[in-house]
Write a structure and sequence with these properties.
Number of strands: 12
Structural class: alpha/beta
CATH superfamily of the largest domain: Aldolase class I
CATH class of the largest domain: Alpha Beta
Strand order of the largest sheet: 4-5-6-7-8-9-10-11
Helix content: 40-55%
CATH topology of the largest domain: TIM Barrel
Order of helices and strands: HHHHHHEEEEHEHEHEHEHEHEHEHE
CATH architecture of the largest domain: Alpha-Beta Barrel
């Protein structure tokens, strides 16, 4: 019996034992009764539940189903989440959260571009030990996944951003609070005081910067600023005032070509988000991941490169990391989870995404995502 087979056997045995001693809610619910977060920690004696690796979330779900006939709160097929969320969202919410936030053309282009890249399996490499930890712009992260800024989340669920921030806090994932949020900075800080938080700011209309808003963001624990790009015809003049008001790293989003990425580097931004933000590029918009490799190559080592449009599944996260991203921002998927089940829905969606990401690493024979490169993929 190989070491990997023996480990797999012991995990199954431990899972069976856990099913006999743990109540079903502890296995199926996103949190344990004490409120402790379900975090992946290497010293966990169990393959499921608190302290388990991300990838064993599927085992947790299976055990809950087999031992107590408990189903997950909604599907684990993240590709189906939008259709499910559409059934519970109002027309107004769908228009704002699902359509306006990216534009139908951009959504389709992103999906097509991501699907072009397929995973190259390496089934004969033992990757029973995986590591998703990373550091982005000085922030230690348990996984290269960030909750991107989405405004007016109360349209999806009454708890809105408060529920999202709590779910992110439980998993120690970084949450980006939109300046157009339904809930205030102070409400979110009170609800999730320990979670890592950044602040998402739209480029100032007319060039007027609100220093009070930026001061509030920092006072409530936001450490990084994610800034949307200027609209066509707008200048860079507000950037000076933003820098004076913000004491921390600044990330510029909406980057779609190498030239703009180099401009961002020259202007001293600390990071960029490669994204077709809000579909602002017209009907012929390119899928974001199509331009990611060239941009990452052009500015490697000069600033952090984040990927920010179209990632729906763990496979999508894997693709973006292999093509040069340091981390991936997700937006729509957690809004879908929020609409379907509030805070628990966001947690379930995130744990499913992280499990898929870790499992995909294993299939590709990769122990750490930092070892990924384009050789892990082929074009369809």
């Amino acid at each position: 019996m190989t070491a990997q087979t023996r480990r797999h056997f012991l995990e199954i045995a431990a899972a069976t034992a856990a099913a006999t001693v743990l109540p079903a809610p502890a296995l199926a619910a996103p949190r344990v009764a004490s409120g402790a977060p379900l975090l992946p920690m290497a010293d966990s004696p169990l393959p499921v539940g608190p302290g388990a690796p991300y990838g064993t979330y599927q085992s947790e779900i299976y055990i809950a189903g087999m031992s107590a006939d408990v189903d997950p709160i909604f599907t684990t097929n993240l590709s189906d989440l939008e259709a499910a969320a559409n059934k519970v969202l109002s027309e107004r919410a769908r228009r704002h959260l699902l359509a306006w936030a990216g534009g139908a053309n951009a959504v389709r282009a992103n999906a097509r571009a991501l699907d072009t890249w397929r995973i190259v399996p390496r089934m004969f490499i033992d990757r029973s030990e995986r590591d998703l930890t990373t550091t982005v712009l000085g922030v230690d992260m348990p996984a290269p996944v960030i909750l991107g800024p989405v405004g007016r989340q109360a349209l999806a669920h009454p708890d809105g951003e408060v529920a999202t921030a709590r779910a992110a806090d439980d998993l120690d994932l970084t949450y980006v609070h939109s300046s157009r949020a339904s809930k205030s900075l102070e409400e979110v800080a009170a609800a999730a005081p320990d979670g890592p938080r950044w602040f998402g700011l739209d480029w100032p209309d007319g060039g007027d910067v609100d220093p009070v808003l930026l001061t509030r963001a920092q006072a409530t624990g936001c450490t990084h600023l994610v800034l949307s790009p200027p609209q066509p015809g707008q200048g860079w003049a507000p950037l000076k005032a933003i820098r004076e008001a913000w004491d921390g790293p600044i990330v510029l989003s909406g980057i779609q070509n190498v030239q703009d990425a180099r401009i961002a580097a020259r202007r001293g931004f600390d990071g960029i988000v490669v994204s077709n933000e809000r579909g602002r590029r017209g009907p012929g918009v390119a899928g974001t991941v199509s331009v990611l490799p060239q941009i990452a190559d052009a500015v490697a080592g000069k600033l952090a490169v984040l990927f920010g449009s179209g990632a729906r599944t763990g496979t999508d996260v894997f693709r973006a990391l292999a093509l040069g991203a340091d981390a991936v921002l997700v937006g729509r998927p957690y809004v879908h989870g929020l609409a379907l089940a509030g805070e628990d829905g966001v947690t379930h969606m995130l744990r499913t995404l992280l499990a898929e990401t870790e499992i995909t690493l294993t299939i590709a024979g990769v122990g750490h995502h930092r070892d990924l490169d384009e050789s892990a993929l082929v074009r369809a």
